[in-house]
Specification:
By secondary structure, the chain is α+β, with helices and mostly antiparallel strands. The protein has 8 helices and 13 strands. The chain has 2 domains: 99 residues, 3-Layer(aba) Sandwich (Rossmann fold); 171 residues, Tumour Suppressor Smad4 (Sandwich), CATH 2.60.200.
């Protein structure tokens, strides 16, 4: 806060108190007529702020600034926001504006259908199981230890799912490990999940990892950090605007690294729905 004040910026601020609180704060800020709202935190905080702005009907009318203090910070790598908070603060003085797409997912939670916006990526299957374990079982360990232990336990016990998968109206049934819809290139903590993704092109880059065995999955995971996983014969990447996933088995869902619920899920692109200060 001292840095922002030293730059001559005039602002008000609120501190989040619990998960979901940033949604409420962003809604309030939008209804008060602020022209810019700044998210200070990680990708999960950005997600909540955008959902709050959208709930207030202002996601396309208010500029979103980001000062990243999170551990992953995958989204800012794709949109060109500095990971150095001093530089990010400086850019708020005279920001360049960038209009980007958002995603929206309809999903099941506690037996009810709900929806949520996401800025970077959303996934069903293995990656969502890791997020669920990280946040619900091992969160007390903090940071990298919780993520690594969650990944290990998910790897040991996860079973691939038989799903009905519709990509822009083309439907088939297949067994998959995970499916990820991306606007940004990075996800899961510096993984180059979608090397060719463009958050302004009006499409998801849809990654479908098929029925990989345990050993194949273990050997292939490091390739995702380099972006070389797309050459694997059981990996499919394609661009699409709407994806529908149904599974007879429980299949969990995450968006921007936050556990949300489970399938059935429908993902749609909202083109040019957010203005960023970069």
């Amino acid at each position: 806060m001292r840095l922002l004040k030293s730059l001559g910026l005039h602002f008000e601020y609120e501190v989040t108190e619990a998960p979901g609180h940033a949604i409420e704060l962003a809604q309030t800020a939008a209804r008060k007529g602020y022209e810019m709202v700044v998210s200070v935190g990680g990708d999960g905080t950005i997600n909540e702020v955008v959902n709050g702005l959208h709930n207030a009907g202002s996601a396309g009318n208010i500029t979103l600034g980001v000062i990243s203090t999170g551990t992953g910070s995958d989204y800012i790598r794709s949109v060109g926001i500095s990971p150095q908070y001093e530089e990010a603060c400086q850019h708020l003085l005279s920001p360049r504006k960038l209009t980007v797409d958002l995603g929206v997912v309809d999903f099941k939670n506690n037996g009810q259908m709900r929806h949520r916006l996401f800025v970077n990526f959303a996934g069903l299957g293995f990656d969502a199981e890791v997020v669920k374990a990280t946040t619900q079982k091992f969160k007390r360990l903090g940071g990298l230890p919780s993520y690594l232990l969650a990944t290990l336990t998910t790897f040991l016990f996860y079973q691939n799912r038989e799903v009905s998968l519709s990509i822009d109206g083309h439907t088939d049934t297949r067994k998959i490990c995970t499916i990820i819809m991306s606007h940004g290139k990075y996800g899961g903590g510096k993984m180059l999940v979608a090397p060719n993704a463009d958050p302004r092109d009006g499409y998801f880059d849809v990654l479908v990892i098929g029925d990989l065995g345990k050993l194949d999955l273990l050997c292939s995971l490091p390739r995702v950090y380099r972006g070389t996983h797309l050459t694997h014969p059981k990996v499919l990447m394609q661009r699409a605007r709407e994806i529908v996933v149904q599974s007879a088995q429980r299949m969990f869902l995450q968006a921007d690294g936050e556990f949300l619920g489970e399938a059935p899920s429908t993902f749609r692109v909202l083109p040019s729905a957010l203005t960023l200060a970069v």
